[in-house]
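Q: Structure tokens for this one, please.
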Amino acid sequence: MKAQRRAPRLPLAGRSSELGYWLQRGADRFARVLRTRLAAAGITHAECAALRELYRLGRTSPTLLVRELGMTKGAVSKVTDQLREKGLLARWIVEEDQRQLRTVLEAVCQEP
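A: Here is the predicted structure, written as tokens:
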């Protein structure tokens, strides 16, 4: 088994100057692990962000999802189509106004 290298011990004054470096390393490591786990589940980063927002918002409209995700309408439409094909998202047209569309997570995505 390969021995893990420890980060060098820095004097207290030097640590603050290295803080940005270590924060970036931690963020990079987190991103690598997340990307690997999402790929194993067959989910892209954009789909994960949409799932997270849908979980937080509950039933919502694509317009609100666009605002919350900071993505274009086309990108949100593509992501929600992909999630619907995977069985993770349900969409329906509002009966009172046929122009309105609503989205919600499928039960498989909800907590038990």
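A few notes: The chain has four helices and two strands. The longest strand covers residues 89-93.
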